[in-house]
Automatic annotation (TrEMBL):
The chain crosses the membrane at residues 27-46, 52-72, 84-102, 108-128, 135-153, 179-200, 221-247, 267-292, 313-330. GO terms for molecular function: branched-chain amino acid transmembrane transporter activity. It is a multi-pass membrane protein. This is Amino acid/amide ABC transporter membrane protein 2 (HAAT family). Keywords: Cell membrane, Membrane, Transmembrane, Transmembrane helix. It is found in: Cell membrane. It holds the Pfam family BPD_transp_2. It comes from Pigmentiphaga kullae. It comes from the Bacteria.
Length: 346
């Protein structure tokens, strides 16, 4: 009798063990990425390299913006060339309010999110009535409108940009301290990744991915895919707005270039490099983008002077070769290739 019960109990136990092992394998790459990010302040302090904090904080902020874009690009199949507009909205919210003597970080964040959500709602309602190339061009057009709007604001620096004299004031934190600012950026990035993980695994995420693969079937099943896509677009924009608020505090500067189509293209490239439709792929893509840019533009290698100068001047050409190689030989992006199939979703 006992042996019979044991035989009946064995398969569920084996299944649970296998499921647990699979979950650990899926979580391991993400844990490794965040562990490495947590160790950066320790390494910077021990080696006396505070420059690393600013560099990696910039990577995380751009990675956060790419995570927001990936929600609509990777999971929703909506190619937006205007998401840098929301990065600029976040940075200019900090800059303009600071210029008028408002230094509360909570006010900066609330205003940025309110403006970003309102803009994203209007832009989303217009853009999502189209698809394909029309969607891409309309998002690009809106970004260029805000880019020229920022240039026209002569009282806020115009084409020269706006200097932000003070960091946002956050209760319990001093953003003047690079270590505290770094930990704040890391916490926001982790929270955004956790939110996207829950969304992608929920009914919302299933409908969003289904609308990317077969929108007609999803509509036939009774799902209002326009509402789901609009909600995803607005949420994506708000994540990028938060990245813009952090970027304004990191650079202490708000520039119209933050809204340019080239920066939107960079965010798309980060998603592609790291791996679209993966939660941490955009972060890995942002790291590859920024580190390669820093490396090629400074060129520390012992090369003949003319060759080094040529690479420094035309580093984008070398970067283009790297992108082509990733697209050809790592179809799922750098993170997808490193994490393997088990980690490709997270």
């Amino acid at each position: 009798m006992s042996s019979t019960l044991y035989a009946k109990d064995a398969p569920p136990r084996v299944t649970n063990i296998a499921a647990g092992a699979k979950a650990i394998r899926r979580a391991a790459p993400a844990a490794a990425v965040f562990l490495a990010l947590c160790l950066v302040p320790v390494a910077a302090h021990l080696l006396g390299q505070p420059f690393w904090l600013g560099l990696v904080a910039r990577i995380m902020i751009l990675g956060l913006a790419a995570v927001g874009l990936n929600l609509v690009l990777g999971y929703g199949g909506m190619v937006s060339l205007g998401h840098a507009m929301y990065l600029g909205i976040g940075a200019y919210s900090v800059g303009i309010l600071s210029a008028h003597g408002v230094d509360s970080g909570l006010v900066h964040l609330a205003v940025a999110l309110a403006v970003g959500a309102a803009v994203a709602l209007v832009v989303g309602l217009i853009c999502l009535k189209t698809s394909g190339m029309a969607f891409i061009m309309i998002t690009l057009a809106f970004a260029q409108m805000f880019y020229f709007l920022a240039i026209s604001l002569k009282q806020y620096g115009g084409d020269d940009g706006l200097t932000i004299a003070l960091h946002s004031r956050v209760p319990g934190l001093s953003l003047d301290d690079p270590y505290q600012f770094y930990l704040l950026v890391l916490a926001v990035l982790a929270a955004a990744c956790a939110l996207c993980h829950r969304l992608v695994g929920s009914r919302f995420g299933m409908v969003l991915r289904g609308s990317r693969q077969n929108p007609r079937r999803m509509q036939a099943l009774g799902f209002p895919i326009l509402r789901y896509r609009l909600a995803a677009y607005v949420l994506s924009a708000m994540i990028v707005v938060v990245a813009g608020v952090l970027l304004g505090n990191l650079a202490r500067f708000a520039s119209p270039s933050y809204m340019s189509w080239t920066l939107s293209g960079d965010l798309v490239l980060m998603c592609v490099l790291g791996g679209m439709a993966t939660l941490l792929g955009p972060i890995v893509g942002a790291a590859a983008f920024v580190l390669l840019e820093e490396f090629l533009s400074s060129m520390p290698l012992e090369l003949p002077g003319a060759a080094a100068d040529l690479i420094r001047t035309h580093w984008l050409g070398v970067f283009g070769v790297f992108v082509v190689a990733v697209v050809l030989f790592a179809r799922r992006g750098l993170y997808g290739a490193l994490a393997g199939r088990e980690g490709s979703d997270g």
